[in-house]
Amino acid sequence: MNFQPNSKGYYGKFGGAFIPEMLHANIYELQQNYLNIIDSDDFKKEFDELLKNYVGRPTPLYLAKNLSAIKGAKIYLKREDLCHTGAHKLNNVIGQILLAKRLNKIHIIAETGAGQHGVATATVCALMGLKCTVFMGAKDIQRQQPNVLRMRMLGATVVPAYSGSQTLKDATNEAIRFWINNAHDTHYVIGSTIGPHPYPDMVAKFQSVISREIQYQLKEKEGVESPNYIVACVGGGSNAAGAFYHFIENSKVNLIGVEAAGEGIETKKTAATISTGSEGIIHGCKTLLMQNEDGQILEAHSLSAGLDYPGVGPLHAHLYTTGRAKYLFATDSEALNAAFELAKTEGIIPALESSHALAALSRLNLKQSDIVVVNLSGRGDKDLNTFNEYYEQKYGKE
User: Fold this and answer.
1) pLDDT (tens digit, 9 = 90+) per residue, 24-59?
2) In this predicted model, what pLDDT tens digit does every residue of 300-311 receive, in sequence order?
3) With 70 as the cut, is the pLDDT of residue 1 above it?
4) How many of the other CB atoms lie within 10 Å of CB of 48?
5) Cβ(240)–Cβ(316) under 8 Å?
6) Cα-to-chain-centroid distance, residue 95
7) How far apart are CA 97 and CA 105, in angstroms?
8) Is 398's pLDDT higher than 80?
9) Selection from 193, 215, 118, 206 nearest residue 161 by Cα
10) Catalytic residue among 71, 89, 105, 169
11) Is 78 a catalytic residue?
12) Catalytic residue chosen out of the listed positions 211, 354, 377, 382
């Protein structure tokens, strides 16, 4: 089974590039140049140097002993929350902006849900002296205020999206509209393994540093290069793609993606795309998405802004339909419980996104001898208001 995209960007029947005519020149330029640039020695040298000395890589692979005792297996946490800016997003952003500079782009745009990708983009633009515009749903601006402030401090312009559900999908729509009208000097830094070819492959390659590090860190700690399970949350799918990447061809490793079920997949308030979606086209690629019988995209719901998206990257659609990866789901309340459990047992406050991956551990039939790696994709500072509301509902106001 081939899990790499073909020359047209298809993973099996998913992927491709479905774009407006005005963007053909930009997408064609990327398709023709991205592999030559990112495989060049000077790019690799600059990328690796920034990952080490600016991002803070390698991130630790931490044995969570207290959580392991509860779950009945050896649980390791890949600490992407300790990256500069607090999430895995910076890996991809540095790669894309180095690429954009080599294509002589001077304006960087991005979409963001939880704000982590927006902060990462604003950070690298500040570092490299580039103009930065970030599109964000108006609803997400309200629930992720700390990250909005960070982006503005870093010099970015944050543009609210008031259409639709005012979340990540609508921010993406606005970013694409802006790009169409400013295509000549602008690069769109897509934050997940979604979008027209070559974005899904490009983002997965930049994030694959996560699985590469897991391989040699497990060798150091356990004497093996592969775990029994890799578990990661899935919205568009960038952190999961990065955690899975070097293990996809190894069928002995169980790849577990965890979607946001919101209030439950049986309700209409969910973001579990693979569990409830069907084949269609969203934001430039053919994949699985939530849609009605007329093909209209449905609004997603998740307490987690970063997972509140009605589609999934084509790589994950392919891994699911071929049976190579298994996709579970966790509800809002299950994710909140998992966040508090990790905080109280390990002294680590995870992002709401990562909490979905933690919540799924109880659904795996784990053995004491199993080695499990959970990709802790981000830290929970940005979610403190949501955690506080949950705490007050559960324990009352003091």
Assistant:
1) 999 999 999 999 999 999 999 999 999 999 999 999
2) 999 998 898 999
3) no
4) 12
5) yes
6) 15
7) 9
8) no
9) 118
10) 89
11) no
12) 377
The answer to whether residue 89 is catalytic is: yes
HEC readout, 203-260:
HHHHHCHHHHHHHHHHHHHHCCCCCCEEEEECCCCHHHHHHHHHHCCCCCCEEEEEEE
What is d(CA 164, CA 280) in angstroms, rounded to the nearest whole number? 19
In the set 111, 174, 259, 341, the catalytic residue is 111
Can you tell me the distance from the alpha carbon of 66 to that of 71, in angstroms, rounded to the nearest whole number? 9
Tokens 């490009």 — which residue? Answer: 202
pLDDT at 338: 98
Q: Enter the tokens of residue 328.
A: 């579970």
Q: Is 111 a catalytic residue?
A: yes
User: Which residue type occupies 22?
Assistant: M
For residue 278 the two structure tokens come to 């069907």
Q: What phi, psi does 281 have (nearest 5°)?
A: -120, 130
C-alpha 374/C-alpha 66 separation (Å) is: 14
pTM of the model: 0.95
- Distance CA(290)–CA(307), nearest Å, equals 13
